């Protein structure tokens, strides 16, 4: 294995993160404010995605329910990708496209937030979840890349779009993980004060 190839991954990742620094800081700050307000009002955050984005949704929910870096009471978050019985029942009885939207309809309440993660912005089941969230009077925070894809068409003016300026899935996912850590840190800072 070429050491230069490995080093190039580090350089590419750093370059995308530095480019994203300017463009994503404001939408991430808005997402933190929105999520904190929802949590402070007794609402919760539902999160969804596919593949690596499903893992990111689970990571986010785990950080809120458990803790991020400081001790605090658990915060209500649900990763919609974790219940295999629900997922397989909906996919079998309806369609894979509805695995998240049916859960949003069942679990989402007005004032809740949907964290919708799709690197391409084109995942049909995530787009359906966004539409269901709007019908349930929820706010959507969308993490995308590759120009935002079809997510740009279904997001409303009150939603928050964090679109990573990259076409490479690996780089997009790396910035999504950093964004998730920023969200968790920001929520904790608003809840517990700056440390």
Looking at this protein, list some descriptive labels.
five-stranded parallel beta sheet, 11% strand, carbohydrate metabolism, Rossmann fold, carbohydrate derivative binding, alpha/beta
Structural commentary:
The model has no long low-confidence stretch (mean pLDDT 97). The chain has a single domain, classed as Rossmann fold (3-Layer(aba) Sandwich). The chain has a 5-stranded parallel sheet with strand order 2-1-3-4-5, sandwiched between helices. The chain has 7 helices and 5 strands. It has helices at residues 3-40, 52-65, 84-93, 101-107, 124-135, 151-154, 169-192; strands spanning 45-48, 77-79, 113-117, 139-144, 160-163. It is globular and about 50 Å long. Helix content is 56%, strand content 11%. The chain is α/β, with parallel strands linked by helices.
Q: Could you tell me the mean pLDDT?
A: 97
CATH architecture: 3-Layer(aba) Sandwich
The number of strands is 5
Strand order of the largest sheet: 2-1-3-4-5
Alpha-beta content class: alpha/beta
Biggest sheet statistics: 5 strands, parallel
Compute the number of helices.
7
Distance between the termini: 42 Å
Could you say what the CATH topology is called?
A: Rossmann fold
Given as residue ranges, the uncertain stretches (5+ residues, pLDDT < 50) are none
Silhouette = globular
**CATH H-tier superfamily:** Glucose-6-phosphate isomerase like protein, domain 1
Radius of gyration over C-alpha positions, nearest whole angstrom: 16 Å
User: CATH first level: which class?
Assistant: Alpha Beta
H/E element order: HEHEHHEHEHEH
- Range of helix content: 55-70%
Strand proportion, as a percent range, falls in 5-15%
Total tally of structural domains: 1
